[in-house]
């Protein structure tokens, strides 16, 4: 009968919808959350950050615990290969505050937050696939002159 056939096909449709609607379980997806703070004394509160090797995404939250405005004591958090730190900082200083002190399109910057002032917080999330396990990475604040003090070692794996 038509009725039976249509209910069977409805069943088949439902089954197809269920199968198609369930996303594959991404058991391997692991977001690792790291936190760091900057202050009015031009310092990060950590000299080192470590993301475990099984992270697939890395989220870094930067909090500016000071009171000074961005123009005077802005901070960001930028991740680079250790060898690129000085060049990235110099290019960023030349790029100016309107570019968050990061040269637009700078491929050496693996990840970076925006620049913030006292009392603000910001974060950046990036795929761990951008990093090599055991590679030599550093983070810095790209505000002119800050990287002399505001830098640290970033370990992955
Ligand atoms: Cu800074």
Number of strands: 8
Low-pLDDT stretches are 8-20
Which H/E pattern describes the elements?
HEEEHEHEEEE
Task: Give the C-level CATH assignment.
Answer: Mainly Beta
How many individual helices? 3
| Biggest sheet architecture | 5 strands, mixed
Bin the strand percentage: 25-35%
Provide the gyration radius in Å.
Answer: 23 Å
Helix content: 10-25%
SSE-based structural type: alpha/beta
The kinds of small molecule bound in this structure are: copper (II) ion
CATH architecture assignment name: Sandwich
**Outline:** globular
Arithmetic mean of pLDDT: 89
Write a brief caption for the model:
This protein is α/β, with parallel strands linked by helices and 157 residues long.
Keywords for this entry:
29% strand; 3 helices; three-stranded mixed β-sheet; 22% helix; 8 strands; 157 residues; binds copper (II) ion; Immunoglobulin-like; alpha/beta
Structural notes for this entry:
The chain is 22% helix and 29% strand. The model is unreliable at 8-20 (pLDDT under 50). It has helices at 2-21, 70-73, 85-95; strands at residues 31-38, 48-51, 57-64, 78-81, 109-112, 121-127, 137-140, 151-156. The chain has one domain (31-156): Sandwich (Immunoglobulin-like). The protein is α/β, with parallel strands linked by helices and 157 residues long. A 5-stranded mixed sheet has the order 2-8-7-4-5, covered by helices on one side. The protein has a 3-stranded mixed sheet with strand order 1-3-6, with no helix packed on it. The protein has 3 helices and 8 strands; from the N terminus they run H-E-E-E-H-E-H-E-E-E-E. Residues 38, 74-75, 141, 143, 146, 150 line the site of copper (II) ion (CU).
